[in-house]
Amino acid sequence: SKLAVDGIPFLYHKYRDQSPPEALQRAILETNAEINRRGKANSDFHNMGTTCSVLLLVPQGAVVAHIGDSRVYRVRGDVLEQLTFDHSMVWEMRAAGNLPEDGDLARSIPKNVITRSLGPHVNVQVDVEGPFPLAAGDTFLICSDGLTGQVEDDELGAIMGNLPPQEAAQVLVDLANLRGGPDNTTVVIAKVMS
């Protein structure tokens, strides 16, 4: 995870002469190659990987890139919108129409089985979305599945829509932990002021 956190912003700035989506995608692909290389170089790190969600706020709008099941949301007014699609077995089976919402099969597949991540493979497919137009008051949430596994979407929207970003982030982490916190919980909230 640290390789992704350090590498992606550094490489994005290196390629800032390209369009923001192109520079972001290139930065993530090169970071993936480095994570993969390090995983192969040390048997203790064989097949290491991480999920990745990136929010880029530029004059053209919000650009989102992601891989895995970490998510990016936007609250605009009273509406919470998930801007990413989970790269997990459950989400992909549902999208293909192969998994009914409330059947036994849906309950038997662990929700945390991801189909894509940075690191384990030399080549990886990164989803880049946007740019999404920005409006004053838009609030964005970047979070790991440690949050979304414990806190429902309607709760996310209510908390983000009614508290300042720093306070909302703390409340969300605390709520996930109060509900058991079985996974690490990462929360970043950004609000567009004007």
Biggest sheet features: 4 strands, antiparallel
Structural class: alpha+beta
Low-confidence stretches: none
Compute the number of helices.
7
Strand segment count: 7
Q: Using the alpha-carbon principal axes, give the shape.
A: globular
Order of helices and strands: HHEEEEHHEEHHHE
> Strand fraction band?
15-25%
User: Rg to the nearest angstrom?
Assistant: 17 Å
Helix content: 25-40%
Through-space gap between termini: 32 Å
Rounded average pLDDT: 91
Largest beta sheet: strand ordering: 4-3-6-7
Provide a short characterization of the protein structure.
The chain is α+β, with helices and mostly antiparallel strands. The protein has helices at 2-14, 20-41, 89-95, 104-108, 145-148, 153-162, 165-178, and strands spanning 52-58, 61-67, 71-76, 79-82, 127-132, 139-143, 187-191.
